[in-house]
Amino acid sequence: MFEYAWLILLFPLFAFLIVGLVGRRLPQGGGHVAVGGIAASLVVSGYLFWEVLGQGALGGEVHTTVDGYVWIPGIEGLAGSQAIHVGLLIDNLSALMLLLVSFLCLLIFVYSLGYMREEEGKHRYYAEVSLFSAGMLGTVSADNFLQLMVFWEIMGLCSYLLIGFWYHKPEAAKAAKKAFLVTRVGDVIFLVGILVIWNTFHTLVFDEIVAQMADSGSEGFAALLAAPQLLTIIPLLLFGGAIGKSAQFPLHAWLPDAMEGPATVSALIHAATMVKAGVYLTARSFIFLVPPAALPLEAPTVAILVIAVVGGFTAFFAGTMALTAYDIKRVLAFSTISQLAYMFLGLGAGAWLLTHGGETLGYTAALFHLFNHAFFKALLFLSAGSVIHAVHTNDMREMGGLARHLPITSKVMLVGSLALAGIVPFSGFFSKGEVLSATFEAAHEAPVFYLLYALGVLTALLTAFYTFRMWLMTFHGEYRGQGHPHESPAVMTAPLVVLAGFAVASGLLAYGMNGFGNLVFFGEPHAQMPLVGVPLAEYALEGLTLGVALLGIVLAWSVYATRRIPAERFTAAPSGAFLHRLLSRRYGIDDLYDAIGAKAVAGLARALDWFDRNVVDGVVNVVGRGGLAAAAGTDAFDRRVVDGAVNALSLETVRASWRLRQRQTGQVQTYAWMVVFGIVIVIVLVVGVSWFLRLQRGG
Amino acid sequence: MSYLLSLLLVIPFVGFIVTWVGGVNQKAAKWLALAFSLAATVLATILLASFLTPGLDFLFGPRVAELPPNANDGYVPLYFVERYPWVPQLGMNYILGVDGLSVPLLWLTPFLTTLGIVFSWTEERRPKEFFALLLLLEFSLSGVFMALDFFLFFVFWELVLIPMFFLIGIWGGPNRRYASLKFLVYTHVGSVIMLLSIFGMYWAGSAELNAAIYGSSTRTFDMTVFLHGAIRHMGPPAASYLQIGAQVPIFIAFLFGFAVKLPSVPFHTWLPDAHVEAPTAGSVLLAGVLLKMGGYGIFRVNFGMLPDASRDLWWVMGILGIVSMVYAAFVCLAQVDLKRLIAYSSIGHMGFVLLGASSLHILGVEGAIFQLFNHGLITAVLFMLAGSVKHSTGTRNIPELRGLGKALPQFSFVLIVAFFASLGLPGFNSFWSEFMVFVGSYSGPTLEPWRRLVIVPLVSIVITAAYYVYTMQRVLFGEVPEKYKDAHDLPGHERLSYAVLLGLILAVGIFPVWWLSMIDEFARQVLPWLGGV
Amino acid sequence: MIPLEYELILSSLLLAIGLYGILARKNGIIVLMSIEIILNAAVLNFVAFSAYKGDPAGGVFALLAIAVAAAEAAVGLAVFLSIYQTHGTIELDKVRFLRW
What we know:
The complex is a heterotrimer.
Chain A: H1 6-22, H2 31-57, E1 63-72, E2 84-91, H3 92-115, H4 122-141, H5 145-163, H6 170-201, H7 206-214, H8 219-226, H9 230-245, H10 254-257, H11 263-272, H12 275-284, H13 286-289, H14 301-322, H15 328-355, H16 361-391, H17 402-405, H18 407-421, H19 427-442, H20 448-475, H21 490-512, H22 536-561, H23 567-572, H24 574-584, H25 589-661, H26 668-698
Antiparallel strand pairs in A: 1-2
Helix pairs in contact in A: 1-2, 1-4, 2-3, 2-4, 3-4, 3-11, 3-16, 3-21, 4-5, 5-6, 6-9, 7-8, 9-12, 9-14, 11-16, 12-15, 14-15, 14-20, 15-16, 15-19, 15-20, 16-18, 16-19, 16-21, 18-20, 18-21, 19-20, 19-21, 19-22, 20-22
Chain B: H1 4-22, H2 26-52, H3 57-60, E1 79-87, E2 92-98, H4 102-119, H5 127-146, H6 150-159, H7 161-171, H8 176-214, H9 223-234, H10 244-261, H11 270-277, H12 280-290, H13 292-305, H14 307-312, H15 314-333, H16 338-359, H17 362-393, H18 404-407, H19 409-422, H20 429-443, H21 455-475, H22 492-510, H23 513-526
Antiparallel strand pairs in B: 1-2
Helix pairs in contact in B: 1-2, 1-5, 2-4, 2-5, 4-5, 4-12, 4-17, 4-22, 5-6, 5-7, 6-8, 7-8, 8-9, 8-10, 8-11, 9-13, 10-13, 11-16, 12-17, 13-17, 15-16, 15-21, 16-17, 16-20, 17-19, 17-20, 17-22, 17-23, 19-21, 20-22
Chain C: H1 4-24, H2 28-53, H3 57-87
Helix pairs in contact in C: 1-2, 2-3
């Protein structure tokens, strides 16, 4: 039915091939081909989304698989084992994600046409971003875990190449390496998760796993009953992959460095692709977190709590680090980690609610936040790119007063900042409030969620503060840099304006269509699921969040605009200075990883290399030398004894010949004498023998 | 009786003689060698195609398995079999035959030889001998993968050493005499111990088995006797076969011979030296095909003929494999010579083969066999890259290289693709084999109590990624040093070799099932006692 | 008819004279002549037995031997001539350069 959905993947892939092969010779390095590819994807995604909606997404759900081809042949004898194949899962979530990803990628690609105009190696850039978008589109439409991982890793490859786009910069090389390796750690955990899933269910397809968990006669059902801890282990392992990709604590270290690439790449990684894949994976792993009722096992509360706690903690943790960053993109990077953590918090709270008889509120809220965050974070990164384009630096200390020079950019960035801070009616307000409401509701059952809720509210304060610190340092006051900044061209500002529109509207839009929850939900559809909670207590919660956010903005205003509260006073105090240093050093975690990577691993590697050269190879060489020594001994024996015998024999032969050849006098008559003598002997013999024989015969 | 396989032997051998005699100048030698190896490649492709589709059957007849007497009792399907008596008094025969295990490797042999010849297009040093020896190497390697008589197998196995010894010893680097001698002596020790176990099988039960299978009670070196005997022994009803007491020592001796060839830690130290000194085409064939002899032997002999011992001694292979993977990955991280790094990475990747074998699970074994093929393709590119960089910049020393991303863009592109393929990124072929090895090891019946140990080799995945990414950081990134400003990028004949190989790597990576179906058929029919079948 | 014994005795005498000449005389020419005498002793035997048995084959061999002897004498004389030219002598105890 949805076979044409393959086109969504194929268009950017073709664009990748075309740009990669002949992009060098195309105008703009093939940028138009990349834009065209993703635009075609967007059209198909839009049509797909329209069809999904038309088939009852509002209050119902579409759930269809589109077959592809086989990767690994199945194992006949194993029950439930099927070939590992490629296939597309078309449901509400994937249709929405496809639309979101292709739309944001299109805007970012269009923006790139302006932003990357002056760069060398544009064809490389456009080929890689096309592949990147194909990777994300494949990730969100995969119908099994392995396919998800395949595209997930393709994204990893592209992020490596794009972060290292300016390969002459040593920091870029280092950041790319870090991004790849840190996410690789997560990927390996993810891979283990896949192994465990395969061994339990002998399939990796989402639908078949769900079916087996609900079917008491199936192999997976029996395996789960035999080892109930699998239900906890599997989602935790999958979450390990999500942590790596979505840069959650403790694998968050790569994301703040990842902005060494062009700003568009950061927008791509932070808004539409890559980091969102982790959230998506965790949303997909709800099939384990919220097992079907037919499975007589307790829900994996430990796994759920781990997800929620990691989310709540990382939200606060990353928010604090954003407070001291001076790099405009780094502030945004920390805010991405923090906002993603909200999503994980929402997913954790949602799973908790779902397993305790609640509704799908948290799940929906988390994905709603993903949806909204995609718009305003893309907007913020592209605006930051526009600023950097104008002033040629990332350092906010060399900016200031840019509102006059960059009127459009400053306004759209203000919209983005308000959305990020969560001010009504900008989109961030709705989804962040929903996540926090879900957390609060979950706390009725598990008090630990109260703590997480408090952390979440505190983070909202921090978010508003650092967001406006960033905006004020950039656009307010006097310009502190060199040169004359000027506004970016229309090809860059147009996407910004579109995104600003969505940053305002995406929350209201979903609110208007009876809530996002009618579109994306887990489990049974509830008709008319309003997104914003009805109970009065929740309005109070929303109010609290909003108030905290406003407080943050006021604080930022008084520190960075009016300077009523000078920041220097804080850093002058010893404890403040220590805190500042701690935050600037990012709690020393990067240093720790560097130490592990550069010192411990490299040291072990050098030690093993030494071991290999000297011990293992040494043994070989010793054996070799032993062989040589044995050979030398044998050789001596051979020379002295064996060869000695031979030599003695030959020497005697020589001597004998010496004596014998004395007889060769050269005197003809000597020879003649010998001939005669021989003849005489012959005659005597013949005569003698014949006489003797006759004597015998005759008797 | 088909003559396809003999033709695959005759062509490179005739090519060897013709090139040696007729290669009056460099041009004649390389064109002659290319013509013969291309002809062999075409034939091998036809053979490969017969395993994938019946479309080319009109050339050499359809693929039909040779049936032994009483085939209903179970038999190992072998295709295109040729049998001629050789020394019948001693039970030696000229028997050739292939199946899903050997065909991918058999195809790889002339294919990589051809690419090696193309890559060495500008070889000026004694070209006649160089190209002729490459063909002799192709001849003997093809023989190893086809021979179904232990004596013939051993003859080819040893014959491989001779051209390789001269390729390293004459066209090698500065330390070539040490390396070539080490290579020869070390692998020869392995072969001799293997020879002992061949004689063990010859004396231990070949007469009884021959009587049971073919009704002739003479001793024989015929491998099919053991293959059929083993499968009848494993499948119900269990026919009598070599006692486990005889299988175990034979298994260990064979495994030693194959582990040296593979190579597995701690029998690996001949490999880095041999690679570092070998000429590029020699390295390509050494890593691409020659190492695969060890993996082929494990599945053909240890698994195919000694199933009881395999089931008992899986842990030996498991330990060797895991140690190889982790150890080699760490050692790679400390290397400064690009070629030495690639050599060690080969050791690590061959560890996957042993780990997959030790799983005794069909997916693990299929993954291991697939890994042999995939590694052959990828490592060929990697060694060619080491040759190219030496050619362009005059050094392979990683700390001296910098900024090649700008100086040598084509080279850098190939390097990035090859490195990511080698570290097992999805979309490239080796991801599938490594994934299957891990699935097999995790699901295998053997690892039941220690299943979580599969985490240990997974560490090597991260370390593998680390050394490749670290190498790229040092080699490709950064400003271009003055001395590499004028370095020339890939010449045309090298580009051709790379394009063919990268295309194949991607094709196999995107459509792995083509190759897997062949391997799957082999594993299912020949090793039905594996877990998961 | 002369009895066979007489002819054989003559032949033996000729052989003995020839042997004496070969072993005792130093002059190369004389040694050569002695060889001819031995050959003639053999020829005499051929002829004698041929007459005795009435078989002409012996006569044929005699003729052949005479022809070979003539050729041999020519070669021998040529050798001695050559030796004389190079060494100035044909005394056999002086001509001893074919030794170790």
